[in-house]
Structures are given as structure tokens and as C-alpha cells.
Amino acid sequence: MVRTLGWLSAAALALGLVMAFGVAPREVSQGNVQRIMYVHPPLAWVAYLAFGVVAAASIAYLVRRAPGADRLAHASAEVGVLFTGLAIATGSIWGKPTWGTWWTWDARLTSVAILFVMYLGYLLLRGTVEDRERAARYCAVLGIVAALDMPLVHFSVYWWRTLHQPPSLMKPGGFTGSAAILWPLLVNLAAFTVLYAYLVAKRVRLLRAEAEALA
Amino acid sequence: MRHARRAGVLGAPILLVEPETVPLVTRDAVRARVPTAIVAVGGPAAVGEITLGPDRERLAGVLPGVLWLGFILSGLLALGRTFLVEREHDCWEGLLLAPGDKSAVYLGKLAGNLALMAVVETLVLALFVVFFDIDLARAFPGLVVVVALGTLGLAAVGTLFAAMTAHVRAREVLFPVLLLPVQVPVLLAAVKATEALLAGEPLGAVAHWVKLLAAADVVYLAVGVLTFDAILEG
């Protein structure tokens, strides 16, 4: 099952690359730089998905106290932090040629940076609380607080300042670009989501083995 | 430019810089030439005096941030120590064994923290009025609302996190690392609202920030009351 997911994500990522470089047209004003769009938004999307899963698994853990739910939250948080870091890095690489700067305190960038630091803290808490069961409970609470905090962070920094282009896919009125751009983007979105599922499944399996070894 | 003539007489170059700054490259270049004398011209402020003090405009710009920095630093100290009494006197089990709903412990600790922070904030605010000569008469009622809402948000999460970090070795480091990112919306809203109020605007002008603060308080309080049971289990 996990192995299948791995091959599936490899194939999907390969197809995504072909679509991004072969099918998608060269953008008029930004040139080839714009092709980073087939990687950057999918990474950000998966990061949000990962933290959503952390919150859901955290609630499930507090209600049912199943160690599996905690392992899912743990694995998803780790992958989420990884993808957030990659989203920030690819965003920087995209920002330099188009905005002329690696980083700016724009609303969306700021909120993603806060998200990144918040979940780094989550992983830090996991690492420092020695008792496993206690770490699971504390992290579940933190996972819920962090997820509920996200809308607040979003609105506060949005009112504070904004420069980032508005979302192009999920907005009222739907996507307005051409199909030649939409399909490569959607394929990459799916590819990175499958990659996320694979990494989480692999990590959960490893965490289970660790717990069994310690028991 | 009247000094240009003197520079000509001395046979020396003129260097124009912003007050208080010499670019690093320029400084190194000047050093490398080993000058026998440097003549500094311009007002006293041009050669390093702390300009934040007398400059009213710049002061007004940073004051809300400095004020909240004072609040949050004192708050961090107070909040982080919320459960230290129980830990040091080995009374943690006493808390665990307390009859009834554990959220009562949370609300009690929160009330204690709020009282402590209110005292400290009153003092800090009084000192600000005295030292920075600000007129609070008009802004005061609005400011009380903003400070109260902001403090409640800080303390609601702070009390919860203090319980989580009470048994951790690196408590002093971990506590602010967890608390500060979560508190970004509260701090942004509080500082922005304070800024507007101190600039003489009515509370209605910052209604969106006040609403955000209130929403944050409701969310944090609800989570605190609901999840504290899970934290105080063992």
C-alpha cells in the first residue's frame, strides 16, 4: 500500500514536470520564471492540508485517545513543516525576479512565516516533553490552538498589508486562466497531494515501529 | 556648504552622510587612508545623539509598539511562572486530584494572571504618560477596552501554554517560542488599535481591530476551557 503510493507519487510528479515544461505555455511577461507556479501553489496547498489533518487528528486523539491519531498528527505536522519551508523557498525564488526581492512583509508571506514558526514550535514541544503520552496530549491541544489561530492570523496580517497576487484558483467566479495553464497546475496539485500522503504513511509506519520497539 | 572652502584650504575631501550613520564601506575606506584629522560639521544631532527622544513624530510612530512590548515582556514573565508554585512545592498532584471540573483551575489561574498583568500594565502606562508626556485624556476609555481585550487574549493562551510547559526542562525558552507566534493576531490588532487611539481617532475607527481582538478572546477562552482537562491529566 505504502509502496504503491510511492510509485504513484513518483509517476504523478514526473507527469507534472512534463506538463509544466511541455504542455504549459511560456508566460508572456515573466517568461520561464512563471513555470514555478506549477510547484509553488501546490506546495502551499499541501502545507495547509497537512495542518488541517494535524487539527483533525488532534481532536480525534483528545476524544478517542488512540495512539494512531497522535502518530498521524505527528507525521502530518512534520511533512507540513517541510512543505511550508519549501513553499517559502520557492516563493522566494519566484519573488526575486518578479518583485525584485527575496522577501517582503506582505500579508500572505507574513502569515505563512507565522504558520511555519508556529508548527516548528509544535515539533519542538514534541521533542522536549519526554513522556510520550503527555507529549501526545499537549501537542493535540497545540495543534487545535494553532489551527484555530490561522484565520485570525490571516485577517490580521491581511488588514495590516498586502502585496501578493490574489488567489487564482480558489476565488469567487472560478478560474479565469486558460486550460493550458489549469491542467498542468491541477496535475501538480494532485501529484504533491499524493506525495504528501506517501510521506505521511511512511512516517506513521516508522513511528509505529518506534513505539513497538520501545514498548 | 560654507565648509567647502575650508576643506579646500586643508586639501581634504568632504563626506556627506545622514545623521548618525556612516556606510560601512565608506568607514573602511576612511580608515584605510589613516586620516590625520576628521572635522565633523553640522548640528549636534549630526554626530550621534539619541534622536528618538526629542523627535516627537518618530516617537509617536513607535510608541504603541514600545508600549505593547512592555506589556508582553512583563506578561511573559508572569504567565510563564503560572504553575511554578505547584511544581516547586510538589503540589501538582493536588491540582490533579482537585474535585470538579478542571476548567475551574484554568479559569482561576487565568483570573490570577489577569489581575497581576492589570497591575503591571497600569504602572507601565503611568510611567509612559510621565516620561513621554502623552495626553491620554481623550484616548483613555478606548485604550482601556483595547488593553483589556488584548491582555485577555494573551493570558488565555498564556495560561494554557504555561501548564503545558510546566514540566519541560527548557521551559523559559519553549514558553515564548510557543506563545509569541500564536499571539501575532492579538499583538497586531492591539498595537494598530492603540496607534489609532493615541493619534486621536475614536474607538469606532478601529472597530475591525477591536472585533478581531474580541473574536480571538472568545476562541482562545473556549479552547482553554475545553482542553484544559486533557492537559491536567498527569
Ends of chain B: how far apart?
A: 75 Å
Structural class of chain B: mainly alpha
Overall domain count of chain B: 2
For the secondary structure, the number of strands of chain A is 0
Question: How would you describe this structure to a colleague?
Answer:
The complex is a heterodimer of chains A (215) and B (234). Chain A contains 6 helices and no strands. Chain A is mainly α and 215 residues long. Chain A has a domain at 37-166. The two termini of chain A are 25 Å apart. Chain B is an all-alpha fold and 234 residues long. In chain B, helix 6 (103-132) packs across helix 7 (140-165), helix 7 crosses helix 8 and helix 7 (140-165) packs antiparallel against helix 9. In chain B, 30% of the residues are buried. Mean pLDDT of chain B is 81; it is low at 43-51. The chains are: A mainly alpha (215), B mainly alpha (234). The interface between A and B is medium-sized, with 28 and 33 residues.
Question: Can you lay out the helices and strands and say which pair or pack?
Answer:
The complex is a heterodimer of chains A (215) and B (234).
Chain A: H1 2-23, H2 40-64, H3 67-99, H4 107-128, H5 132-160, H6 179-214
Helix pairs in contact in A: 1-6, 2-3, 2-5, 2-6, 3-4, 3-5, 3-6, 4-5
Chain B: H1 4-10, H2 24-32, H3 56-80, H4 84-88, H5 92-97, H6 103-132, H7 140-165, H8 171-182, H9 184-198, H10 207-231
